[in-house]
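To: structure desk
From: M.T.
Subject: fold request, one chain
Message: Could you run this one when you get a chance? Sequence is below, nothing fancy, just the single chain.
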Amino acid sequence: MSERKAVVELPRPEEESIADLMKQVLMRLGEDPTREGLVQTPARAGKAYRFLTSGYSMDVKRIVNGALFSVTYDEMVIVKNIEFFSLCEHHLLPFFGKVHVAYLPKDKVIGLSKIPRIVDMFARRLQVQERLTREIAETIQNVVDPKGVGVICEARHFCMMMRGVEKQHSGTVTSAMLGGFRDRKETRDEFLSLVNQDSLGR
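Reply: Done. C-alpha cells follow.
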C-alpha cells in the first residue's frame, strides 16, 4: 500500500505580506519573533485576519444565488439570535453578539439560510456596529423588496472590555428600521415582542 503524501497548504501572497508586517509589530512590541512560541505566529495571524475580513470578497448576488421565492404570505418573517463576530475598525479588536432580522414580505421571501450569510458578509469586515446594522437592513430591503425591514444588533466590544473604560459587562444595542417597521409603532412592538420571546426554549 502506497503512503499518502501530506498536502502542504502554501500561504497566499497577501497572507505572507501580512505575516511580514506582523513580524515587525512583534519586534516593535519588544518581542522576538524567532523564539519558539512565536515563529509561526505572524503566518497564523495573517491567515486569521484574512478570514476575519473575508467579507470584502463576498458578493450579495452570489450569496443569494436566486433563492427568492414567490409567496402569498404577508406576515412578519423573523430570523433571530444570529451570532456574529466582527473587528472594530478603530482598534482592530473583536466585537461580537447577536443579530435579529425581520421583514414584511410583499410578494417574495428569501431563503432563510441567506440571512445569516448576509450578516456574515458584513460582519467579516472592519466595522462599527451602527454601520453593520444599517448595511444588513438595507441589503435585505434591496434584495427582497419587502414592505419593511427591521434589524436589531446586540453586541459586546472588546475595546470597551479590555481597555479604555474596562467595563466587562456592558453591551451595546443598535437598530435599523425601514419601511413599515419605521412607520408603524405596532410593527416595531410586534418585532420586539417576538425577539424577546423565548419561543425555542433557550
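Reply (cont.): The helical segments are 13-28, 41-52, 60-64, 114-123, 129-144, 158-161, 180-183, 185-196. Let me know if you need anything else for the meeting.
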